[in-house]
């Protein structure tokens, strides 16, 4: 998704773009994502600024790509499970409002007006109208198509070509060399490997997540609904399994249930404890789901960097190399701003956001 | 002409009554929903979610989920697997089966 | 062989699937001192091949719809004997949706049972033997979603179990050895079978003389069917295919046409045949979901198994169609070997290299024969060209061939998973079991089994409690000693 957005904005900035992927379109983490475009789960800071920029750009793209990418400005509802939790949530929301986020406190009656099928007895929550959703694989495919970039799927990058002076001059693939004065690393969870091919260091690591998918349902879950503890899990450093229910209906009918986080490398086995925890959390939020069938589950690997911020911008260690990866679980949402900023950098324009917090060389070798 | 029941020399107990959308139909002990509906000359009992096209039995062994039906208010039951009991209420299904 | 009755501390094997492979495996293992729980979705053992009329239909001649009934009668008798002796527990109407390695090294098998299949049941075991069988595949053609168009196996299952047919006229079509018994079965049950439409040329079979010569039983079987077809005056059209099914609310007729050597229809050969049922099939695919979720390696579309029918996950065996489609007789041989290997290894006496020579020879012979059939009965190469853009390919999500082609042509999809992501083909209730081979064919890519963690849909309320300790309010653990295993527990 991030690569697709980079291709779109770079092409529109007048650059000649080739998009290379060793797999198919959306074959990595994009194809395993929920398509969250969220501001609600981010505390004030550089990531929130990126999310707010992205939200506006996504709304613009939605006008252009219409229903093809299943864009829905559905809004998010964060639910507190206790009065203490509600107080903490409202304080969190207050900080976000100061940073420009729309966040409306919800008394119980307002909460149940928005989501009538929630479990009874909840003390309240916060409504985030800016949260929205796309279907990630469709979004990536349509952005690529709209970009006019040359798409080379099934091409594995085997080396980053460099001049005697050390600057990049293209990539070598298993099906031939591609020459270009700038290379953007949008390899997501595998971004560290690509950085290594360029002789530099970027400590991107996988954080496994599962998503449960239900049978098709009429629209009973109207927003993206999650429990307040999700924010803590997103920001957590723990390797152990964490789950906090994130429940949302989709345009196509099924309800998607996330979000588990585990640091288990690239283990692709289906873990019943993780799936069970997702189901338990979802049925606690929405008791009617207990009788609804899960048809399938899928897993993916979120690319994360040690400080949970992405790497965006030029790599001062390798002239010509740019990074656009490490967005953890927010890559779909943050893709538009990332692509836009990368295009600005590539065309010599001052970026709309300060890229210092996203500097790719901010990690020492030891921090990995 | 020979019937399948004659071929297997089946002597089930007396037929009982179930309803399909309120209309009474006869079923034999041991028959699934799908078997009883076929016996009654009915071949479709579901309208698809997208185009509302008629569907009934396809795979007959519980794999394809084309024959979904609402049985005693429980939606999305596979008619080819669900056994019938006297008085059961079968309802044809449209959309997701969840009253949409 | 002596029948020992295992005590409660005997190793416990969970056999999943009570078709020919599972039955043979359960019997072989139980006879050698292993406690067996045989889980199966149906009320009666037998699987798809030995499917029988529901007990309450009280059929006195169930064998009228079968051949090889005597083999099944022996298996069923053996099963009853082991159940009575407490060696086997038959968990009927248990729909297994997941199997996992437990932290203590054993396995937990998760099933759904009860009305509406909404109640959880769990079986803990020291080893698992997968005999999950296969399901039929059907390649699409215009009109194939009309009610009245059923899979060949589906028509047979409805007939064998429910003693029903849909209407009095039928055409049986597609390719493969299953079409013959379906046609003769329907005809014997009083249906006017107006044509058997086989796209392959079974005349190619005699050229494979050596493999056939080793199969006198199979030749006799073929002659039997040929005789029955003749007796029922069923017209056999080889190198023909169904081009389209006609009707508005239900099937009224089909158009069939002759095929040329390249798999294209010959101009001027199309003819319309009125029929109430079209029973159509293009072969079988293994059920591999449970194996995949357990981490077993797949070989092509099937579960990989070694000479002892072991998968590459310690403690997991696989036998029958799930390791490669080859028919009931092969499943029996594989199941027997798997059951013996599992018993030997669970009891700490690993088998020697030539522990079951007769079964191994049978297996080798039947696999060779099955390879010959596979080579002859392949769908005609031109099938995809006859699928119009408007034809629904994914029956669940109503995804058309046009949408699939557009995802390849315009959006860069090049494999089944990407087509699925971009079109929803294969995302519905059946999870692509029906459409995946067709999607692969239309997208011009290789068929690869998709990963499905759940072998069948599971209510979230059940999933939320799966694996809780016995005694919890859900997920009650079942073990030997309950149900029909209890009576005999004291017999040891």
From TrEMBL, chain B:
Record carries keyword Transmembrane: no
UniProt keyword terms in alphabetical order: Oxidoreductase
Pfam families per UniProt: Fer2_4
TM region positions: none
UniProt GO MF annotations: iron-sulfur cluster binding; oxidoreductase activity
Protein name, entry field: Proline dehydrogenase
Taxonomy of the source species: Bacteria, Bacillati, Actinomycetota, Actinomycetes, Kitasatosporales
From TrEMBL, chain C:
CDD domains: GlpA-like_Fer2_BFD-like
Keyword Ion transport included in the entry's annotation: no
SUPFAM superfamilies recorded: FAD/NAD(P)-binding domain
Keywords of the record: Oxidoreductase
UniProt entry tagged with the keyword Ribonucleoprotein: no
Domain BFD-like [2Fe-2S]-binding, first and last residues per copy: 392-441
Region (Disordered): 465-492
Protein name per its UniProtKB record: Oxidase
